[in-house]
Amino acid sequence: MAIDLTLNIAARALTVDQAALGVIGNNIANVNTPGYTRQVPVLSAASEQGGGTFHLDGGVLLQSVQQILDPFVAQRLLAATTDAAQKNAVATQLTALVSQLDDLGDSSLTTLLGNFFAAASAVANQPQDTAARQGLLGAASALANELNRRSALVAQLQQHVDDQIVGDATQANDDLAQIAQLNADIARETAQGGQANGLRDQRRQVLADLAQKIGITTQEDPTTGEVTVASTAGPVLVAGGTVVNGIATQADPSNPNTLGGNTLHQVLLQTPSGALVDVPAVFASGEIGGLLEVRDNNLLTASQNLDALASALATAVNAVQTQAGAVDLNGNPTTGVPLFSGTTASTLAVAITDPSKIAAALSNQPGDNQNALALADLATTAQPTLGNRTFSGYAASETARLGEDARQAQGLATASQGVLQQVQNQRDALSGVNLNEELTSLLSFQHAFQASAQVISVVNSTLDELMQIVS
Amino acid sequence: MISRIADIQIFDQLRTQATGIEATLATLQGEVSSGKRFQTADADPLAAGEVLRTTTTLGALAQYTSSVQFGLSVLGAEDSALGDAAQIMTRAQEIATEQANGTVTASDRAAAAEEVHGLLQALTSIGNTELSGRRLFGNLALDAPPPFTSPDASGYDPTAAYTGPTQEFSIKVGSSASERVRISTSGGTVFGGSLKALSDLETALRNNDIAGVAGTIAALQQGQQDISAERASVGARENQLQTLQSQQASLTLNAQTTLSTLQDADLASVLSQLTQGQVALQAVLQAGAMIAQTTLAGLIKL
């Protein structure tokens, strides 16, 4: 009887060791899988078996395969992911803006403003020279074109950011549906006594993806294994196997921050009935939050400042060009002949093509250069609409401001990335796979397996001995 | 305290460190190839703003310098023309003094009248001098008709000989609107008295009017004084522009030094940082290779 029991115990141990080797093999296989949570076989001694005179413990049982993780760290990881994604989105876009404006390159606004006023000064020295006048028109055109280019560039960047917001919102909505589906699958497997470890890992990955887009909190039901996902701002997004509030986007033609001919989108919650609800707080964090901030604040300000410069320039230059008494090369008054048309950076253009229309004189006397001198003086004239700075001074300050914004955003992104890395390290330190550890366990279970096989062999030879006696 | 480390962490860390060092190396290489400490404003926003302001200053200085050079060329030409004009007036005074003497014959006076007419033509011609197509004594008007009427024209009136502009021509030599220097000389004002005196002298000589000849001497002297006074003023303005030129040269040098300090890369330091970075990258990669070897996998004989 006891020999049978021993054989059973050894046979069960072989099965358990094999299963444990399988778990270790799975861990080793997933050593580089991002987000994989290592699993350990939870063994326990089986209860007593047999009866009569002999009482033997029942060998080993594989109770469960447990994932090693700290739910608190997992929550912190979600929060750190959201924060890092938000800061990173802002830093990436502001850095792109600064690099595309290329303010330290040859086409900087300060260079082109300098060229324009140098050309005005050349006209002051040679008021009747058509080449000098043509030079001024050329410099004015280059300046207007650069302001147009910058305005278009900022508008393009805004459209690009909006496209990204729409993409993120769609992705976030897909994530919600996936989480609901995985919740249902996990609940089903849990109900059948399984642990659904693979599904849980998948769900954690989807949650991490969602946390990049918007701020979320999660709460797991210990019985069913389902998680309830809520926005950090309150509204529940997924409960059990159902998406309570989906995420949708809708074109918002009335957005006052729209630049150029852009179509901007609103990000909204979608109730099960299909109604769209505007809850801005839900989308104030994560990548969507960062992108919205850039789209509606930073890019808008950059564009407004370009417009302010363009408007001040057109106003001041035209005021000189069209002032009372100003005459062109042919002695005709230029009262109705402005040099620039348009009052914004996107619409600014040189309004005259004939260089003789430039008003260099304030009288009909040949060689008069008084008005050209007045135009050249604008280079150093403080402009009340630009905070009493000169045109070049304003452009230089704007470059410094944009650079500072980008630098600050980069600093914040680096800091939040550091925090994320730390939390990720905490998570990996606990939940990641260490190959040496696994290989040690591998050896340990291999030896256990060999020992159990040895037990069977011994029992076998014992039984053989008995058989021989009997025969 | 780290009690346990996962393989993914080790390799993540290696990756982060290696890419971090590589990014730094790329930045340093950019500094070496461009010679600039930074290429975009976010790298050093304050310095970027200063660079743009200093570049603007340099541009403005170049503009003022070019105006000053133009002014000097105009004033130089005026100076020399006024010198010639003064000589004409000196000769006219000599003639007037000689011809006011009662011993001189009528035919001598007629001959002198011809010379004085020549002087009148020469002075008119000086008044009509062009510099690169611009009337030196006619507000620097380009391709303009002669501002002085020829003395050979019928009904010549020396007091109305100047028909050019009366406007003054100034150049901008500094940032403020008041920093201007007049470089034009109004021909009518400078030569008007002299032309009248020469014309009167010619008439008196032709009429063999001794008292009339003597009577022009004072006016001829006054005319020469007008010219000399203007020439002194031209000289003073030339001096002013020369002073400005040297000031601007030193300001330009200062601005260039500032710009260089702001944006030029310290090549010695950058190159040593580059070497340091390369060594660090090598070390990280080597550490990675060593860590990869420290695994039980190679030691277990199954």
Describe the structure.
The complex is a heterodimer of chains A (471) and B (302). With 471 residues, chain A is of the alpha+beta class. Chain A has two domains: 2-68 and 434-470, no CATH class; 72-432, no CATH class. Helices cover 59% and strands 10% of the residues of chain A. Chain A contains nine helices and eleven strands. In chain A, strands 3-4-5-6 form a four-stranded antiparallel sheet. Chain A has a three-stranded antiparallel sheet with strand order 7-8-9, with helices on one face. In chain A, strands 1-2 form a two-stranded antiparallel ribbon. In chain A, a hairpin with a 5-residue loop joins strand 8 and strand 9 (276-277). Chain A is elongated and about 145 Å long. The mean pLDDT of chain A is 91. By secondary structure, chain B is mainly alpha-helical. Chain B has a single domain, classed as f41 fragment of flagellin, N-terminal domain. Chain B is 68% helix and 3% strand. Chain B is built from six helices and four strands. In chain B, helix 4 packs antiparallel against helix 5 (210-263). The longest helix of chain B is centred in the N-terminal third of the chain and has 55 residues, at 45-99. The mean pLDDT of chain B is 90. Chains A and B meet through helix 2, helix 3, helix 7, helix 8 and helix 9 of A and helix 1, helix 2, strand 2 and strand 3 of B.
**What is the number of beta strands of chain B?**
4
How confident overall, as mean pLDDT of chain A? 91
Q: First CA to last CA of chain A: what distance?
A: 19 Å
Helix content of chain A: 55-70%
Helix/sheet category of chain B: mainly alpha
Largest sheet of chain A: 4 strands, antiparallel
Element order of chain B: H for helix, E for strand: HHHEEEEHHH
The coarse silhouette of chain A is elongated
Helical percent range of chain B? 55-70%
Instruction: Provide the CATH architecture of chain B.
Output: Up-down Bundle
- CATH homology superfamily of chain B: f41 fragment of flagellin, N-terminal domain
Strand fraction of chain A equals 5-15%
CATH level 3 topology of chain B: f41 fragment of flagellin, N-terminal domain
Oligomeric state:
heterodimer
Tell me the number of helical segments of chain B per DSSP (H or I, 4 or more residues long): 6
The percentage of residues in β strands of chain B lies in under 5%
Arithmetic mean of pLDDT of chain B: 90
